[in-house]
Amino acid sequence: MRRFSFALVWLVVIVVMASCKKNDPTVLELSVETIYIDSVGGVAHIDVTSNKEWETIVLEDWIALSSSSGKGNGEVEITVLAMASNVDREAILTVKTTNGVMQQVKIEQSPRIKKSGLADITNYVSGVTSASVKCRMSVKEDYGNPVKEQGFCWSTTTNPTIDDMYIATVDTFAVISGLEENTTYYVRSYAKNKKGTSYGRQLEFVTKSITEKEGRIAKGFLVNDTSQVYFSKGNLQYQATTNTWRFAETQSDMAGGQNSMASSSYDGWIDLFGWGTSGSDVAPYTVTPSYSVYGDGERNIAGTRYDWGVFNAIGGGTSGEWRTMTCAEWMYLLFNRPNAKALRGLAMVAGIAGMVILPDNWMQPEECDFESSATSYSDNAYSTLQWLLMEKQGAVFLPAAGNRYNTNVKEGGVSGFYWSSTASGEYSAYSISFNDKSVTTDRSYRVYGRSVRLVQNLQ
C-alpha cells in the first residue's frame, strides 16, 4: 500500500512539473528601443534576453545584422551604411521568438542626429611620416552612457569602421604605424558604449614618400610608444688603413676572426668594437683592456661624438645621419612593442646563424615561412634568394658575430652581442645578446668588442 502511495505522489509531481514547464511564460527583452545613427553610418549593438529560440527580421538593405537567429541570451550587431543623400530614413528591427512573441527596435538615421545615446567625439591627426601618423581624440559627450572602448580605425577607402583596421587605446592618443608610403588614408576615431558605436569626423591624410638613402631598410620598427626607426642594411664595419666606415654589403656579412687582427695597420675590415670607439677620442681598432679608455665616464653616448653614427659619415652620407639605439629602445623593440615576440626569431641566412626581427607592418612572403618560437637557428633557414624576399618586406637580420676580448674572438656563429648607447656605471655598458637559449639585455665591460647596428629616426 505504501509503495502505491509513494508512486502516486511522484506521478503527481511529474505531471505538475511538466505542466509548469509547458506553461513557462516566454521571456523576450531587448536592451534598447531606439537607435540613432548619423549620416556617415555606424555600428550599434543590442542585447537579447530570452528563454526561447528567436530570429531577427529587418527589411531595409542599408542595414546588415550579425545574427539572423539565436537561442537564449545573445547579442546582435547592427551595421548601418552611410547615407547616399540627406533624406532622413528609419527602419524597424524585429526580434521574434518561435512561438510568436515579438519585440522591436526603431533605427533612425539622419544628418541632424547628434548621436543621442552614443558618444559624441572629435579627432585630429598630426606627425604624418612615410609609415605612421599620430592621432588624438576626445569624447565631448557620452549622454550618460560611459565609454567602454575607444580608439581609431583607418582604411584606404572612405568611412572606415572597426571592421577595417583599428587600434583600441586606453587614452586619447595613438600612433598608427605600418602604413604604406605615398598612400592616401582615411581615419576616424570611434567610441563604444552600451548604446552602440559612434565615429568621429573622417580625416584624410597622405603618407610621405620615402627618400631612399644608401644602406637603409625602408620599413619602420617601433622603439617606444610613439617613435619608429629604420635599420641599416648591415652591421657597421671599419677599415683602419683608409679610415673608412661602411655597412656590411649584406645583413649576414660578418668579419669573424679578422677582428683578432685589429690594429692601425690592418687593411681588412673589422666589425666588433669596444664601446664608444667612434674614432672621436678612441680609435675603432682599440683593444686595450683599460676600462677607463672607453666612452666618457658614466655618461650615455646617445647624441654624443662617442656614438659611431653621430660622429661619422657612413656609406657616402654625412655625420649625424645614424645613431645607436638606447637600451630602453632595444627592450621595447624586442619585448614590449605590439606582438614583439611574434616578430622575432632565431634563423640561418645563407648558412649564417643569427636573429630575425620583423617590422611592425609585416607581410610574410608566400615563398617563405617564419617560426617566431624557434629554439634553434636551423628552425628558420633561408637561402640567399629567400632572404632577399624577406628583406624586401623589411626583415632585419642580426648575425651571431660573437664577442671579442683583446684579440681573442669567441662565440662566432653561437651568440650575438649588440651595443646600446646606454652606460652602466663607469666601466660597463648595456647591450642585447641572443643565442639558442635566450634573448636578453645584459651589462658588459666596455673593453669587449661587440657588433653595432645603427638606425635612423623615421621621418
Anisotropy-based shape: elongated
Q: Hey, roughly how much beta strand do the residues contain? A: 35-45%
What's the count of strands? 31
Major β-sheet strand ordering: 2-9-8-4-6
What is the arithmetic mean of pLDDT?
87
> What's the end-to-end separation, in Å?
95 Å
Report the total helices.
Answer: 4
Oligomer state equals: single chain
| Domain module tally | 3
Computed over alpha carbons, the radius of gyration is: 31 Å
In short:
The protein is mainly β and 459 residues long. It has three domains: 28-109, Sandwich (Immunoglobulin-like), CATH 2.60.40.10; 120-206, Immunoglobulins (Immunoglobulin-like), CATH 2.60.40.10; 231-457, no CATH class. The protein has helices at residues 2-22, 308-311, 327-336, 384-392, and strands at residues 28-30, 34-37, 42-50, 53-57, 63-65, 69-71, 74-80, 89-97, 102-109, 120-126, 133-141, 149-155, 165-168, 173-176, 184-193, 196-199, 203-206, 216-222, 228-232, 236-239, 244-247, 344-349, 352-357, 381-382, 396-399, 403-405, 408-410, 416-424, 428-434, 439-445, 455-457.
Secondary-structure map:
Elements: H1 2-22, E1 28-30, E2 34-37, E3 42-50, E4 53-57, E5 63-65, E6 69-71, E7 74-80, E8 89-97, E9 102-109, E10 120-126, E11 133-141, E12 149-155, E13 165-168, E14 173-176, E15 184-193, E16 196-199, E17 203-206, E18 216-222, E19 228-232, E20 236-239, E21 244-247, H2 308-311, H3 327-336, E22 344-349, E23 352-357, E24 381-382, H4 384-392, E25 396-399, E26 403-405, E27 408-410, E28 416-424, E29 428-434, E30 439-445, E31 455-457
Parallel strand pairs: 2-9, 22-24
Antiparallel strand pairs: 1-3, 3-7, 4-6, 4-8, 5-7, 8-9, 10-11, 11-14, 12-13, 12-15, 15-16, 15-17, 18-19, 19-31, 20-21, 22-23, 23-25, 26-27, 28-29, 29-30
